[in-house]
Design brief:
Oligomer: homotetramer
Mean pLDDT of chain A: 95
Order of helices and strands of chain A: EHEEHEEHEHEHEHEHEEHEE
Number of strands of chain A: 13
Number of domains of chain A: 2
Shape of chain A: globular
CATH topology of the largest domain in chain A: Rossmann fold
Largest interface: A-C, 31 and 31 residues
Strand order of the largest sheet of chain A: 7-6-5-8-9-10-11
Distance between the termini of chain A: 28 Å
CATH architecture of the largest domain in chain A: 3-Layer(aba) Sandwich
Number of helices of chain A: 8
Strand content of chain A: 25-35%
Largest sheet of chain A: 7 strands, mixed
Low-confidence stretches of chain A: none
Chain lengths: 285, 285, 285, 285
Amino acid sequence: MSNSTAILLITCKDHKGLVARVSGFIHEFGGNILDSDHHTDRETGDFLMRTVFDLAGFQIPQEEIANAFGPIAKIFNMNFQIYFSDRKPRIGILVSQYDHCLVDVLQRHRRGELAIEIPVIVSNHQTTEWWANLFHIPFRHFPVTPQTKEQQEREVLAVFREHQVELVVMARYMQIVSEEFLQEIGCPVVNIHHSFLPAFVGAKPYHQAYDRGVKIIGATAHYATRDLDEGPIIEQDVVRVGHRDTVQDLIRKGRDLEVLVLARAIRLHVEHRVLVYGRKTVVFD
Amino acid sequence: MSNSTAILLITCKDHKGLVARVSGFIHEFGGNILDSDHHTDRETGDFLMRTVFDLAGFQIPQEEIANAFGPIAKIFNMNFQIYFSDRKPRIGILVSQYDHCLVDVLQRHRRGELAIEIPVIVSNHQTTEWWANLFHIPFRHFPVTPQTKEQQEREVLAVFREHQVELVVMARYMQIVSEEFLQEIGCPVVNIHHSFLPAFVGAKPYHQAYDRGVKIIGATAHYATRDLDEGPIIEQDVVRVGHRDTVQDLIRKGRDLEVLVLARAIRLHVEHRVLVYGRKTVVFD
Amino acid sequence: MSNSTAILLITCKDHKGLVARVSGFIHEFGGNILDSDHHTDRETGDFLMRTVFDLAGFQIPQEEIANAFGPIAKIFNMNFQIYFSDRKPRIGILVSQYDHCLVDVLQRHRRGELAIEIPVIVSNHQTTEWWANLFHIPFRHFPVTPQTKEQQEREVLAVFREHQVELVVMARYMQIVSEEFLQEIGCPVVNIHHSFLPAFVGAKPYHQAYDRGVKIIGATAHYATRDLDEGPIIEQDVVRVGHRDTVQDLIRKGRDLEVLVLARAIRLHVEHRVLVYGRKTVVFD
Amino acid sequence: MSNSTAILLITCKDHKGLVARVSGFIHEFGGNILDSDHHTDRETGDFLMRTVFDLAGFQIPQEEIANAFGPIAKIFNMNFQIYFSDRKPRIGILVSQYDHCLVDVLQRHRRGELAIEIPVIVSNHQTTEWWANLFHIPFRHFPVTPQTKEQQEREVLAVFREHQVELVVMARYMQIVSEEFLQEIGCPVVNIHHSFLPAFVGAKPYHQAYDRGVKIIGATAHYATRDLDEGPIIEQDVVRVGHRDTVQDLIRKGRDLEVLVLARAIRLHVEHRVLVYGRKTVVFD
């Protein structure tokens, strides 16, 4: 018995009766659906669902729900996960020298806005160690050069594993992580890119935006994949700029965007509102 | 048998098993849920639901679905309506002299963007008759003075009834409709107010906004109720203004907002995405 | 003597005393500056200025102002133009089958929102002829095939010249105009591209945006140059989209953006608020 | 001689030759205008101007510029101020328990984004003392009750005077400051109100917005005047909300708005871009 809630995420091909079977299962065992949303991609036939139900009065213990749901999942060939609201995801942070995204996440965490744990902060610089100490979070410093990159990534991987990290947040980590790192890490990696993707991929997007003379700049939070800046987009936002804005102004205005967009993406992810399929996301907000 | 879809709207107090029973009913008779959304107001305990299901293969004829669903509705003391996508709502338009909202609705209708019928346009002026004729829509002119207002409203009511109007859109109708009119009309009335409600209720909101020196102006589409500008809000949007903008500039910028906000509100309403409870709306978009 | 205003646009390299000399000239001959704005690009050293002054009481006749200002222009090696508010720019419209941008421009023109003349509408289709007739604007139909393109462009050029067009607006003209056309036309050409440039250049940007899974789509008004979709940007705007939006929804939402962004760009251009330098614009709004 | 810039702010009634005289003065003594903007309110005849000029090569020492400009000011009956970019305004902060605006300002200050000094933080609570200590800023705690309010305000006033504060920022100070305080303080006071004024004046605006069912909420930075929430508006911004958002969600989303809107208002004020006239502002950005 518990007063927390369960979040059931389902991905499969569309079939008649999916919603009825899932909601019937929850009702049968005394659960109350608090929130439910689903989406069918008519082109691909993909069905994606997120259902939140109250565990108070639910007759199956938390640890057995997945087993109990198994037969239904089998019928429809579902991929599914069950999360519980009393369990905070463990987030590892990767950061370089710019601290605005890091400090923002720490502040939100501190005031209870994000239901997460931050077991470790990893950086290739020491500039943010001060903030880690301030918030009593273990800080690990792994400098990197082109020669040591492979070795450095192995060390970073080991630290994240040691801390049983379930999500890596690249809070302006100015290194490109390798395909091997992404394969080995075994959990999603969220990156904040300082442009309105797919405009201005790659390095120095604010300089690119300035040179092109755009009237709006943006920021994009996406899952990191082996194709740089090509991963599924979680959240984007934009701000107006004009001819008076220098590159420095774009960087300044962009910082505020990066902070907000990354914070929203983390919130969406840790509330299990983001489902990936193909190179896209469904965001149930 | 039909290849259209059914839209089932439900309002009741929250209970365990609501989603399971509704989706079970649809599944039992061979329907496929295409889209479903619901909301529970934790404070009031109100439960609101919108479910869209495919009628292809559904074993109950359209005209008997309401009866068949009756027993379930009774158990949970539901208010419910069923709409069918092959049936276009009949919209009556009320307009005065400004034609921008009217012309925009007519254009969207013409290019097939809104699945509606417009059986009649009613105005207290003749300036928009040209547009009505152009689009081959019956136009009725009922001038109004403080002395003739009661009589005029009776005539307008009679026209809308004669044309079996299911929604009245006040597309910048510069008259305040009476409480009696709203009681008698027997269908929802959508109004576009040219401010970001509840700021600047009443007359000349752009002048009020100019005098107050706000940096952003807005427009609000809401259901008309007897309390002027107090009805449930369907949609709002805003645009930036600055010290260089005169009242005329505010009016010009505001026109673009009014057009967009009213168009979105009509779309949301005719797709049965708006449920009213208390003085609020739930918008399932 | 006149109660209209003059708009003086200046481009040159930055020098001390530029503002003093220009404002001194206007003051010396009895003009009153109503509005003035300038910008210096610190990187390139470019100076751009727009000054509006009242012609009431100005001691130089309109037709001699340019001559009188010549000596000052020479000192600073200025490029300059003088426009008068009582003179409406002549705009030629190029359009294909989609009529939303065209109808919007015609409506704004009709209600006096744009101080322009529209002497001719040119199309490679006949679908918009109805609208041209309605608004009593000459319509010319020049169909185009890959084989006849060169000939068709010569005919279009001849028509625009015949009507002494000072700006060409491509209001969703689905043809790529040739470099020769742009050289020959002898006036600016404004295009509306249905994406947030530089994202999604080229064909079918809404389909590209849908495939990429972006959370925001945009529209861009820019001057047409020989490099497709690479011309100086005048105005951009964006709207949120989500996983429920199909390509058709993106197209629908995008239409509203295209209309607004193009209308704003035309207004900015005809009020002589846009100065081009390099591949960028300065917009004095 | 200096490599800083001067910012000249002028307010007077509109006259011919104002721009020429001001720019002529600067040019005459060897200054180079870097940026200049002005505005004439056609209704009231008010003229407001902001001119930035380079002091390198300017022949009048900083401390004598005001005197030298005096005769021109006298001719046109100008109010004027001269500020210098090498002189950072001294800002006193008033805060209660919510720390998000305070921490944001401190962070921007720390990374050099705001050219200000913060000599003191004053609070009626001790919760933010930790942050003041962290950033090595003197912290003064003056608790307040209805009985001690008069005395408390005198103490706060004394502290701000002692630190020669030139701007007071109420960074979510949950007390209403008295008319006497505003008269005595002798410098502008900026407040952040957590609604889109003039909607939801007074207490608990997020609760008011929730009860009204608005689809957009806002935040407003304004100068504090004796009429509560009626002072001249400097900056506003908004964010979308929906039926799923609880009051707590509105508060959370609103926090991000408050932070951004207050930060922008402070930046605009300390760069001397805001001129007040009547109950409005001109913002030269």
